[in-house]
Design a protein that fits this description.
HTH_LacI (chains A, B), transcription regulation (chains A, B), 12 strands, homodimer, 3 domains, about 45% helix, DNA-binding, transcription (chains A, B), six-stranded parallel sheet, Rossmann fold
DNA sequence: CTGTTAGCGCCTTCAA
DNA sequence: TTGAAGGCGCTAACAG
């Protein structure tokens, strides 16, 4: 009933009239301890319901067996899928995950990073807020010896560890799909221009059109800040063009959702007057009466798993090689392919 | 560059030729320390980039300033909303949140609880897996001095701390709404019979019909195990009845999604041949061309906030009153109202 | 106002 | 194969 009666190694030692070091060693299966003593210790530990005090171990080992994961938002399906895999991986290594939502606010993001730093996490996985521009924390963390792995939204900075998805393949497939369905006026709602992910998408978009001998029409490329209003404004701009496009690739499925709503309000019919393809392959599509023609799967689960794997490699190196051979793995980037998934239209 | 050079309180003491306790006190703004020394200490700490070693503090204080949150799934909008608020609340108290997804698997749930226990979290907020039947861990945690607050899915056990939502009000409103739109054959897709939440809903359903002088038709109450298949089977059973109901209340929005898909496959038209109302007020409805007529808002954010508040009250009591006055607050239940939200049909 | 001392629970040399 | 002793970084009596 009383919480203070948690048995310790000392208690066991006293009862068994042996030293604490012997108990410690027995509990950790140290080879130099006699089988009998080991058994006796373990038996009593069992009876007493002994559990090692992790906080003491953390302290002693200078490790917390905890990793931090910072994401813009848990409610986006992409991120909840990613974190599930991260959690799985971490648990399999007997690590715990602590969580932070930046809500795409750079200040909040920084605050979370600092909290995690003071909590001495052993490593961090981060999908940056969309409009973070300052990345000084990277050096701070490096100095603190905390490895960090980026994924999804990765800053354009040399020598960082990251998992990124190849946005190009998906875009090219999207355009080919549109073209093969007879579309020639294809537009693109891109995200904020400063994001590497936006640049990559835009390059691929242009490439895709060129591949299909479609001239580039600058009016067909619009931008959104990813807010609901921004998304609506973007699609409205396209819809109001004299030569309204018949097909739209958009930055991601959330943009598409808002765009579809706006389009309907204008009296147009989705999948008849105008067609969509976007990134993320949002699971809700299967419940929509008029989903996009296709969606580009970005494999959040795999990204999460790979990111975890990379992070644990870095953590292990940190522990073993106390030297600088950690630089060996520093600045690694893994690229995952994206691929188009057709919806059942 | 080297991680081992983290300055400690000792280092500061040595440089300033004062004792470590003075440094410690100065850093913690202890009133009995001279202003000058305090300033000198703080200045040097700043210069040295000193940061307290939390693991040492955790160890010393026998607290981790960490709470555990266990949820069936992060991808459900209800839970991601709840956890956002929990996180906010915890952060405002300088606590960190560690996270676990049970995926509605009782074994996994138990494993997470144990991990959190060995990690010595200061408290736990738990929305139980739908089919957990063993609650022995409640006593285990109590013995370990770890308070626990349930929310959303709360076991039917006396003397537990919980936040629950009043499912009755919402159900009565739902039925009144249906009736006032002319519906007389109203059916109900309930969740697993063993859940308290199912019993409460069913009681209210019957009450609602009675209030409106509608006779109870047992065929109009069906059950699902909440799997996609179960959801489909349930609605199909209703749709195949000779006197097919024109209105359906369902356990939650996810059930409704599957039901709508199944109904459409049968050639029926939602919001014309058959109408829906369900629990949860899933944010995606605003993007659907045919959302349910209404949805019962369960205020996940508020539930999360209240749960956090209750948990921190328990934690504080644990710390201050080392005696049993914790029983004073033991077994508290807070009920939040649910209310119907009409969709823009 | 400040220093001394002791100890949280565990692990790990070093010595026997 | 075992014990004794020391220390991780910090806080908190108890003394001055």
């Amino acid at each position: 009933m009383n919480k203070s009666k948690q048995p310790t190694i000392k208690e066991i030692a006293k009862r068994l009239k042996i030293s604490t070091s012997t108990v410690s060693r027995a509990l950790n299966n140290h080879p130099s301890i006699g089988l009998v003593t080991t058994m006796r210790v373990k038996k009593l530990a069992e009876e007493l319901n002994y559990e090692p005090n992790r906080t003491a171990i953390f302290f002693k080992q200078r490790k917390t067996f905890t990793i931090g994961v910072i994401l813009p938002s848990l409610s986006e399906a992409f991120f909840s899928a990613a974190i599930s895999e991260i959690e799985n991986y971490a648990n399999s290594k007997n690590y715990t995950v602590i969580l932070g939502q930046s809500l795409d606010d750079p200040e909040r993001e920084l605050k979370i990073i600092n909290t995690m730093k003071t909590h001495r996490v052993d490593g961090i996985i981060l999908s940056s807020a969309k409009n973070t521009r300052e990345f000084d924390y990277i050096d701070v963390l490096k100095n603190a010896g905390i490895p960090i792995v980026f994924f999804d939204c990765v800053p354009d900075i040399p020598n960082i560890n990251a998992i990124v998805s190849n946005l190009k393949t998906g875009m090219l497939q999207a355009i080919d799909t549109f073209v093969s369905c007879g579309h020639q006026s294809i537009a693109f709602i891109n995200g904020p221009g400063h994001l590497p992910a936006s640049k990559e998408r835009e390059g691929a978009f242009i490439k895709g059109l060129t591949n299909n001998n479609i001239p580039i029409n600058r009016d067909y490329i619009v931008y959104t800040d990813l807010s609901e209003q921004g998304n609506e404004d973007a699609i409205i701009k396209l819809v109001n063009l004299i030569d309204r496009p018949s097909a739209v690739v958009s930055f991601n499925d959330y943009v598409t959702l808002d765009a579809m709503n706006a389009v309907r309000k204008k009296g147009l019919i989705v999948n008849q007057d105008i067609y969509f393809i976007s990134y993320a392959n949002y699971p809700i599509w299967k419940y929509m009466e008029n989903p996009p023609m296709a969606s580009i799967e970005q494999l959040p689960g795999e990204q999460g798993a790979k990111a975890s794997q990379m992070l644990f490699d870095l953590i292990d190196i940190n522990v073993e090689g106390d030297s600088d051979d950690k630089s060996a793995i520093q600045g690694q980037k893994i690229v995952l392919e994206s691929k188009l998934v057709n919806q059942h239209l």
